[in-house]
Amino acid sequence: MKIKNTLIIIAMSIIGLTSCKSDSCNQNPFLSDYGTYLEAPAFDKIKNEHYMPAFIEGMKQHKAEIEAICNNTETPDFNNTVWAYDKSGELLGKVSGVFFNMMECMNSDEMQQIAEEVMPLITAHGDDIAMNPVLFEKIKYVYDHRAEMNLDDQQNRVVEKYYNDFIRSGAGLNEEEQAKLREINERLSILSLQFGNNLLKENSNYKLVIDNEKDLAGMPQSSIDAAAEQAKKDGLEGKWVFTLSKPSLIPFLTYADNSMLRSEMYNAYYNRGDNNNEYDNKAVIKEMLALRLQKAQLFGFDNYANYVLDVNMAKDDKTVDKFLGDIFYSANELAKKERREMQNLFCHDEDVHAEPIEIQRSDWWYFSEKLRKAKYDFDENYIRPYLSLDNVRNGMFMAANKLYGVTFEKRNDIPVYFEGVETYEVKDFDGSILGLLYLDFYPRESKSSGAWCTSFREGGYDINNVWHPALIQLVMNFTPASGDTPALLNWDETETMWHEFGHSLHAFFSKGRYSRTCGNVPHDYVELPSQIMENWAGEPEVIRMYAKHYKTGEVMPDSLIEKLENSALFNQGFNTTELIAASILDMKFHELTDIDVINNLDVDEFERQQMSNIGLIQQIQPRYRSTNFGHIFSGGYSAGYYAYTWAEVLDKDAFNYFKESGDLFNQKLAKSFRINCLQECGNDEGMVQYKKFRGQEPSIEPYLKARGLK
Ligand SMILES: [Zn+2]
């Protein structure tokens, strides 16, 4: 969800850049206090033209702050060096916190143009700081003398973290190597943007237009209505338009009887970025892999994965490979069993003695849904009426209240960037303010696909020791309301909302004096706070709290809850296999050690080969194919997609602790989880913090059981 090291990544070499002219300064909302409640971004005043001057002024101020540290003639100590550095870059953080999040949810050609202009500047700015020899000398002095400086535990940790950050950002390299690193970083920043922009274009360029009603056979009415509305929007009234956004795509793959059209949608989705057109990502991938390997080599690592993993809980590629390999084998076997079940049930031709017909990749959703109905008498459409967006959202607020005493009050006076975005004031059990929560629910063309949690501003102390509450944004792409029917979520969307909400609780609860450690956890820990919330969402006791029929208010009947529970293990072979296959693909790319191999790489062939090596069944592809794997090529998850699974072992073990206590809302455990795993999670290494809560290392058993692998 968040990468805290932005300050060190953030950059500045631009000497002689003009700061803003006084007129635009006066009107630029970034350059003075917003004057809003909690200093929430003044979206009603922010215009695209404000970004660039604010970035430039932000870099200028940051540079001046760094120079002040460097020019200080006193002996370097914690306060005049580390503390001052920790609190620098406020304005740059302020504009970045808005711009880069708007890039993801309010994208436009103009925004892309600004990003392309500003990214190289910011990257260079970050490199200037990270490779500033005087600054590093001072940080190193404090690091070398920390034992004599009477520092407390947290101060020691901050010093060690920053020292390591500087080393990992090139401070210890010679001049020639530093110049090369700068070039690599700058190019990578551009390529990563390009990858994301290509993907966005590929997402929005595809539409399936249906003009024959017969082709809608099998589809639920809500999806047909939504497709008709989309057609109207596109000026195709009387037809039906399906897109590659999940609320449109998944019901089509699941219900449409027309297998040819299902196959067309499936291929359009999986081949994004691989169409040999101007938005093709294969060349981008090759160049990125080559640059990443060169970067890792500069730091003495044999591959990029090991450079990344060195600061994660997992530590190295072998640990991750073994972890993924063990799970993959059982998951793939389970998927084979699921395939057999589907084939036996549905894929005969007229002659019962004939061999079952082989099912196709694009058939999996369709037949698995039929299997679910046959085996568990369960259909997503039975539960949707109980899962209105309002009920699901209020349910997660209620659960957080029962666990931690926090409350959520809707505000109508906070500026938002798009009509319909909701804002809530979040208060702690004692009434103190934790921050603001922004909820942005529905797809639009300017929004990336998927769901995420991010911040306009993280909670933290400023240089004057004043605490600023967090401003957190959750972005989703859920099924919208249609006609008189409110937005009714499926189970995946329900879990997704609780998941992203879990990230926000981590952000709201994080407390700590220093930005470097406050709430800052290794990448493979980040999904623990989010994924653990999904467990509560699915417990019968909790479902009864929030799942009420949108028309009658009737609580979801026990018989239906039972069916939902019984089918919890349904299709887990498929789900786990596609997830782990993508994680393995990510690792294989980043374990390459030979630059010539990368330069001669056929991206598609490499993917096919790697998937064949692990024996991935033919009906399943990795959850993301290489050319649309935004997580690893434009989203900061390179050599890190495994982190979802790594953290799932933690969250299943942690939740099991609650269950075993006999009380899902056990106050003692909730308090301990909040303090050790959310509030003070940055105070020590991930496993140390986890063990403070759990009393022992996690067991993998609850994970294996939850995934049906044991
Ligand atoms: Zn997450």
Summarize the structure.
The chain has 710 residues and is mainly α. Helix content is 55%, strand content 6%.
Q: Can you walk through the features of this model?
A:
The protein is mainly alpha-helical. Among the domains are: 6-169, Orthogonal Bundle (Neurolysin, domain 3), CATH 1.10.1370; 206-270, no CATH class; 384-569, Neurolysin, domain 3, CATH 1.10.1370.40. It has 30 helices and 9 strands. It has helices spanning 6-9, 22-27, 48-71, 78-86, 90-105, 109-130, 133-144, 153-168, 175-205, 221-233, 246-255, 259-270, 282-298, 304-309, 317-346, 364-376, 380-383, 389-404, 491-509, 527-537, 540-546, 558-566, 572-590, 595-599, 603-613, 630-633, 643-660, 667-679, 686-694, 701-706; strands spanning 208-210, 240-242, 407-411, 422-427, 433-440, 452-457, 460-461, 467-468, 470-475. The protein has a 5-stranded mixed β-sheet. The protein has a two-stranded antiparallel ribbon with strand order 1-2. A hairpin with a 5-residue loop joins strand 4 and strand 5 (433-440). It starts with 5 loop residues before the first helix and ends with a helix. Mean pLDDT is 94; it is low at 1-21. The structure holds zinc ion (ZN).
